[in-house]
Amino acid sequence: MNKHLVPYLGGVELGRLDTPMVRDWRAKLLGNGVSESMAAKAYRLLRAVLMTAVKEDEILSRNPCRIPGADQEKSAKRPVLTLAQVFKLAEMCRPGTAP
Hints:
Blueprint: H1 6-9, H2 19-31, H3 36-55, H4 83-93
């Protein structure tokens, strides 16, 4: 929150926050090198806070977080060792075994 929300949106009055501001905030995050994964986490946090302002506090009539897919993380697939590779690695870790 302090790293990705407050510096960009902390000075905005809650009632003035709108969807174009949210889009601009997200674009600035990504433009400043924040990963898509971290931007998605920050977006989800903002959306949750604003949902409270809508449903419980009734400060906003609707949530301005309306960017399709902005809440989704698309992590790269990580390679997985085969069983044979696991056994070879385990063998290499045994003391006195040369690669």
